[in-house]
Amino acid sequence: MIRSLLYIDPGTGSMLFSIIIGIAGVLVFALRSLWIKLKFVLTGGRSKSSDKNVLPVCIFSEGKRYWSVFRPICDEFERRQKDIYYLTASPDDPALSASYKYVHPEFIGEGNKAISRMNLIKATIVMSTTPSLDVFQWKRSKSVRYYVHLPHMPNDITTYRLFGLDFYDAVLLSGEYQKEEIRSLERIRKIPEKELVLVGIPYLDAMKERLDSLPASDKNRSNPTVLLAPSWGPNGILTVYGADFIENLIKTGYDVIIRPHPQSFTSEKELMDELMEKFPETDKLKWNRDPDNFEVLNTADILISDFSGVVFDFSLVFNKPIIYTDPSTDWSQYDCSWDDRTLWTYEILPKIGKKLTRENFANIKDLIDECIGGFDLQRGRDLAREQTWVNIGQGAAKTADYLINKYDELTAE
Known about the structure:
The protein has a 7-stranded parallel β-sheet. The chain has a 6-stranded parallel β-sheet with strand order 10-9-8-11-12-13, with helices on both faces. The protein has 16 helices and 13 strands. It has 2 domains: 55-201 and 392-410, Glycogen Phosphorylase B (Rossmann fold), CATH 3.40.50.2000; 210-388, Rossmann fold (3-Layer(aba) Sandwich), CATH 3.40.50.2000. The radius of gyration is 24 Å and the shape is globular. By secondary structure, the chain is α/β, with parallel strands linked by helices.
């Protein structure tokens, strides 16, 4: 009885935590304001506010999986000998062990501890890939001048949860259609326009540069390598099609690599254990869990995935075909539900790959062969690259230019 009375459901717990954080923030800022006023009186009005503890430009990273997104930008700041502060919620983020002089990495705690730190941070500019600023637990700090959002996938910017970008000051983009999506939402919601800047995609630039540095491959294309890299959750390929689909892949005689989403091993552990036991590794079947996906993407001749950003990494950088599923997603809780336009992703997917359905997955070998030999898919990849990847090779430089110039603009007075 006592235990049931003390139970707090997760939703209520999150709300209570937000209330506590809000009260704590008010108290902190009230005490700080009182101290500043007291110093002003004690010094006869001669006290001047100091901004020595205000970070100039900082990055907030939810975790180490976003290091590949931020690393090219950090490298660019290091090259220019400009200070930037990298605040991460992962104790094993690779940034923490990197040898930088001008990039200052710091572990700020995991989960709510990191959010609490960010809610009170003092900085001129904060950049992050994290949506929903000022919507849930992550609040705008009163001591931050400007918030900048950097997407981590080259697709529709309105596929965030509701109000995902509404309270950012600026968004860095890679395609004109993304600007149109945001402007449309702003008009519909009657909210102020954000600063929208086309910079490109720094992490794809870095991946392409890495690929271009490799010697030409002499792989025998008569026996393709098929990479199955699904998302996790109820719409993921392994959840929807399961063991039957893996059996059909093995029957093709092609080399098969299965790379589940890392979250699958936590949220779908029972399914993963079952599949890995039923399909142990052989010379034709491999399970891949490498932290860096570059090698496996480079090895594969075709990718099979679902509504995941990896399809664009594979198509745009490695210039190879995909097979994709069309998940029955309920978009009612996402920003795109406010606009009746068709998502760019839905328009471009049929141009860069073939759709996997229950009706055709038994004939997956024919579908694979059709994709690998499809010249029309090459034209589709060229179109996708043109529409969603501006400033190829210059993304990090353009991003650094923007952040440095914006800092100078904000601090000019």
